[in-house]
């Protein structure tokens, strides 16, 4: 699938706040989760801060913000170059199926090549068949499982 004409993947700007929050709310609802307003505000602030270690990218289609990625850049013990963890990916339900999700991942691959990140990785639920169909086009999933403790 080729990304549609009129699609732009770009950095967020302060005036994108309302559009990003609308998509973020959809993403949080997709996970049936609840994110405190202070965390949403803090995440948005970090996406605008070039020194935060977090990177946000927006998909703008015909002037509307219709998708985003949030990634964390961190050092790793198995490589000297930075590693990119793609933490969040979301496309507006009304804009799905047109190659926007793929374009958002392609954008990160291009950034990785430009900036010398050595790895790009992400997780999803085993049951998320829609996302996995997209992900399987890039690389085969490994057999690691995730352990998480919530401490604060
Ligand atoms: C996963 C998600 C980002 C995909 O976005 P999208 O813009 O619809 O994806 P694309 O249009 O780029 O589709 C990419 C591929 O996935 C497949 N795909 C996407 N949506 C599909 C659907 N509903 N049914 C079947 N296949 C689908 C397509 O076949 C396409 O592959 P192709 O180009 O080889 O045909 C989007 O569905 C979404 O936001 N889902 C909810 C949040 C989520 O699951 N995020 C990821 C969590 S880790």
Description:
The chain is α+β, with helices and mostly antiparallel strands. The chain has one domain: Aminopeptidase (3-Layer(aba) Sandwich), CATH 3.40.630. 32% of the residues lie in helices and 27% in strands. The longest helix has 16 residues, at 100-115. The chain is globular. It starts with 6 loop residues before the first strand and ends in a 17-residue tail after the last helix. The model has no long low-confidence stretch (mean pLDDT 97). Bound molecules: coenzyme A (COA). Coenzyme A is lined by residues 1, 30, 89-91, 96-102, 124, 128, 130-131, 133-134, 137.
Describe what is shown at a glance.
The protein has 152 residues and is of the alpha+beta class. The protein is 32% helix and 27% strand. The mean pLDDT is 97.
Q: According to CATH, what is the topology?
A: Aminopeptidase
Give the amount of beta strand, in percent: 25-35%
Task: Tell me the count of domains.
Answer: 1
Q: Give the overall shape.
A: globular
CATH-derived architecture: 3-Layer(aba) Sandwich
Q: Helix tally? A: 4
- On the 0-100 scale, what is the average pLDDT? 97
> Looking at this structure, what is the CATH superfamily?
Gcn5-related N-acetyltransferase (GNAT)
**Number of extended strands:** 5
Radius of gyration: 15 Å
Lateral arrangement of strands in the main beta sheet: 1-2-3-4-5
Write the H/E string, N to C.
EHHEEEHEH
User: What's the main sheet like?
Assistant: 5 strands, mixed
Bound heterogens, unique: coenzyme A
Helix content: 25-40%
Report, as a whole number of angstroms, the end-to-end distance: 42 Å
Summing up helix and strand content along with how strands pair, one would put the structural category as alpha+beta
Low-pLDDT runs: none
CATH class placement: Alpha Beta
């Amino acid at each position: 699938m080729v990304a549609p004409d009129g699609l732009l993947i770009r950095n967020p700007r302060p005036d994108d706040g309302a559009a990003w929050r609308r998509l973020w709310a959809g993403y949080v609802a997709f996970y049936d989760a609840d994110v405190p307003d202070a965390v949403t505000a803090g995440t948005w602030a970090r996406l605008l801060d070039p020194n935060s270690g977090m990177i946000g990218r927006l998909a703008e289609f015909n002037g509307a913000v219709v998708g985003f990625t949030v990634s964390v850049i961190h050092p790793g013990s198995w490589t000297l170059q930075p590693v990119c963890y793609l933490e969040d990916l979301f496309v507006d339900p009304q804009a799905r199926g047109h190659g926007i999700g793929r374009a958002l991942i392609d954008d990160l691959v291009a950034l990785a090549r430009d900036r010398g990140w050595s790895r790009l990785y992400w997780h999803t639920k085993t049951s998320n068949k829609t996302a996995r169909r997209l992900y399987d086009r890039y690389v085969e999933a490994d057999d690691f499982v995730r352990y998480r403790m919530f401490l604060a």
